[in-house]
User: Which sequence fits this backbone?
């Protein structure tokens, strides 16, 4: 495992530009919680990793929720009296209130303003607004555009359909040697917004690509879902899979220049929580940690009390904490290839821990074994500094009593998981250790 | 409950001057652990709330203790050779050593000094001294008065009785809908000392008045007792009531300008401890917290190992921590109407938590319920700030799994109990929540 | 117990120079893990306390280890072409690579340098090096000596034996009234190094002397062992004794001027850990605490997972943390009589806690007993300051419910163990307390 990961990590830097190019490719598609934009996005993902696409008809019940109508949009604009498009969906798909009802007509300026959303504090930016569960029509514009409206009335066109159809989501199961699963979920419902969440889609796609080329213990289930309703629909149709899920992460906002941020699962001390914190702590660069809250992305559903899955969220600057969030400024400038690559390397290092963590028992529990006679230990004693590798050997031998996992040992010893794992492998080779069970 | 409390809290500010006036009224009465002063004090309390007065004869056994003799005093003085009263009980009842034996005679200055207590560091103040369990005669004076004694001998008179009689205490039970009790105890044995503890007597009286006008779940038992011996006598006569006590507080020193101080119960993490800390933390003003110690007021007895009741003590500047403590400077200037009102409001907010705390279970535990379709949630999504009320709805739904109480949820979510309770009530109305049990 | 300890502690200061003199006496003996140096050292210890000496033949199996050959050395030197001894074992026994094979011959300077160990950063100091488990010959010298070697070849002599023989260790069991044991272990394999570990040998010897003159509850087992192999051999031959060991400490580096340092046992919260921390905290001078790690002295073996004994290590500047460590500068200047005496006093205070710790139950658990009528309490009430002794009485009565030991009470109350113990003794005398069991 160790050497494999090392090789791939060096290629992670190379993956940054590729992931970035995929973000660019998806940027122009107008997505919503249903409709062709979602389907097109899944087709593009499928060109990298095989995706199983699910279509769930409008009206299908999913716990407390009902699958809504399918929304498709062709065009939208505001025309002035001179017939010029002063707000134009073709320039940015954020200009339409996402999931709004179709509308066509001439409206006085006063009425138009009631249906026009802006950001007065950020006069150049277009806000991202949705109206999923209340029927409304509306457009979004920059404050500068709104201020320029002087005509007495305007022609408004929202050429959209909101009809019975399907909710669409994609699933990619990378099978491992066991049925135990790691859930990796990202939302795919946002239109031209790069960090939230084309970055997450790109990272999940590349992570799935890496894992298909590798032998793993866990099976990795990637979900590409419309936010909230998609996760609820998936859970309602897959209650039989839920008991197999050992760990999970919601992937979002992984492309900006901010530091990594981990939001813990509802449990707070699940193995996934401890594994992510181990990775972030031992990397040596800044990061932040947030306690669970029932507000954010789809961890809300995975961590609802009826499931209480060990699912956290590993982002860079999180949900709502950067000024460009949910505006047209969350664009191709905000996301960076090196940030995507750095995020990917964190996810890979984490997977290395999940795959490699295990509980062992020493086969020589009474006193230390003689490492020297096995060539495991420098023969020349008496040095003050015995080296990190030797420390790892001693720690693994001392704490492997059937209670502590390698991750526990790394955390207690202040040693990197990789070093501890390396020591455990050496000791296994020399019959000084036996595996009690995989996992933590 | 919520609206009721709000109305009453607004009248709490108005209660400050009334409580202060009651302190003034009680100030001139000379109290001790037994005697007419206690009876007169209980009569005055009874003019506000109905008090059941208990008389326990001298010699009655109470665990390791025996009810002592009844002490009554009429007059006490030191007269100089010119026949002038240089120390005069009529000017301050602190001038007599509380509970001292009667004495009458001419004594040389040297002997007098052995029986005269002063505070050399505070030359203007008279100390408060007692001699409950050792027979002695004595007087207390300011250092200034003591320094002025120049005659060769003085006439001393302590016109008191120390005879078989009764120990007197008062009890006021405000019945709630259940037999579970909240114990509220204050000591009434101190003579002209305002903060310690006329302030506590006044607050307990007003709290009892409020509760008699309200429907509560708990029954509230107010005890007006002589310190130490009174609590011991009460416990020895009411062992059958002890198992009903769910929470308790000792009320003392609640009228000075200092910040609120909470001394935890012996258990340290009882519901009363967490509830008081929640109130103090969410009020936004300064406060302090002390761990339990077996030194202080009657929590010593309630928290003795044979009872170990969840009884803390909620004061302002505590026992022994202000310079005027147990001196004539603990007078009507030290206690302030607004401090009394502020203390009362803290007690009322605490009672609101005790009454309203409960454990619920979500009736929609798998994924979030759709709050939007019930009008519980703003229909227009996509905003970064969802508002505290919505957060409370989500937190209550997420943590209501039969393990967490509303107080737990408020503490974990960083939300005020009232907001959490409001959210729970809304969810109950919409059949999204069911009560598992009252309490924490 | 209390008065006894006090008397002896006053004589602890007097013990400093005596322990120092013993360090001086042992300093010139050349020790290794086997051989005459160990035997001679044990003979000198036996002149102070009776030592049972054990001889374990070469080749004996001890868990994963085998007792090595016996090493004895008579002389070693490097002679230049002029026949002068430029490196001379007779000047310092550190000049020989400890436990090295015999060698005699003329070698070119280049070859000699490959077998000559120095400390380039500390040009005046001779390093201490060993080669226990790899056959090698070598010498150690100061960098200054090494730099002065200019001749083309040198005559090398290591007049040593490495032959079948015995491993020797010493044991001193000071019997108490019970079979429960406290293990006190120190390594005796280092040659002319004073702090590490002639200081530990001297302290252990004096501690054993003190304990032989005292009635104790625990039996105290002192082990004088070669490091690592000695502890492993002892454990392999005494598995029946292991279950009797209640507490243990490894004694090393107790003579330098640094502050006391405690390294916790693997368990981290054993009674020994809490007792040592109590002593260090209540002494009022600086100290440091380290978590357990499987690197250091023989706690490595006692805390191996098959034994997991509650054994910590109480040193001054620990293992490897002072520049003179394992060099000729760990000499008679580094160790000081007053530091030895201070260390001894810490060990004695600790033993006082281990001996005196117990769990009691109050015989008057409902309310406080009336201390006044028993003369246990100042009769004159009403003072703000009640005194530490009275606080101890109240704390012991309040927490003695069969769950808390006196050590627990001292830690929770912030009171010195001795004060708490004194209070418990008073309460026992007055039939207010009964012992539940010795220990914590």
Assistant:
């Amino acid at each position: 495992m160790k050497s494999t990961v090392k090789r791939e990590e060096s290629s992670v830097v190379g993956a940054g530009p590729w992931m970035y190019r995929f973000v660019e490719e998806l940027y122009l598609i107008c997505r919503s919680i249903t409709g062709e934009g979602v389907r097109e996005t899944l087709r593009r993902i499928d060109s990298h990793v095989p995706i199983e696409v699910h279509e769930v008809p409008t009206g299908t019940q999913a716990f407390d929720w009902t699958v809504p109508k399918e929304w498709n949009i062709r065009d939208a604009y505001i025309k002035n009296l001179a017939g010029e498009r002063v707000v134009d969906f073709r320039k940015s798909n954020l200009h339409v209130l996402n999931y709004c009802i179709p509308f066509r007509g001439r409206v006085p300026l006063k009425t138009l303003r009631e249906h026009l959303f802006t950001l007065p504090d950020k006069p150049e930016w277009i806000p991202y607004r949705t109206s999923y569960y209340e029927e409304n029509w509306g457009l979004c514009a920059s404050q500068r555009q709104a201020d320029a409206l002087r005509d007495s009335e305007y022609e408004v066109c929202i050429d959209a359909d909101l009809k019975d159809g399907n909710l669409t989501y994609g699933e990619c199961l990378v099978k491992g040697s066991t049925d135990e699963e790691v859930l990796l979920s990202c939302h795919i419902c946002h239109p031209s917004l790069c960090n939230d969440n084309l970055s997450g889609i790109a990272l999940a796609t590349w992570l799935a690509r890496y894992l298909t080329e590798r032998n793993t213990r866990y099976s990795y289930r990637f979900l590409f879902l419309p936010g909230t309703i998609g996760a609820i629909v998936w859970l309602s149709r897959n209650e039989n899979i839920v008991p197999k899920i050992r760990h999970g992460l919601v992937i979002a906002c992984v492309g900006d220049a901010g530091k990594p941020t981990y939001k813990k699962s509802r449990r707070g001390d699940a193995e996934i929580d401890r594994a992510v914190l181990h990775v972030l702590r031992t990397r040596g660069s800044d990061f932040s940690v947030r306690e669970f809250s029932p507000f954010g992305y789809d961890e809300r559903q995975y961590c609802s009390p009826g499931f209480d899955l060990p699912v956290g969220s590993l982002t860079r600057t999180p949900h709502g904490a950067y000024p460009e969030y949910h505006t047209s400024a969350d664009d191709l400038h905000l996301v960076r290839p090196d940030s995507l690559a750095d995020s990917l390397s964190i996810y890979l290092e984490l997977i290395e821990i999940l795959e490699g963590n295990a509980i062992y028992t020493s086969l020589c529990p009474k006193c230390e074994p003689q490492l020297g006679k096995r060539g495991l230990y420098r023969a020349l004693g008496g040095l003050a500094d015995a080296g990190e590798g030797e420390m790892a050997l001693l720690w693994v031998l001392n704490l492997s009593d059937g209670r502590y996992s390698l991750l526990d040992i790394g955390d207690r010893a202040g040693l990197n998981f990789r070093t501890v794992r390396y020591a455990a492998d050496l000791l296994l080779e020399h019959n000084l250790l036996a595996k009690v069970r995989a996992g933590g």
About this structure: Confidence is low (pLDDT under 50) at residues 1-10, 378-385 of chain B. Residues 264 and 288 of chain B are 11 Å apart (CA to CA). The first strand of chain B starts at residue 52 and ends at 57.
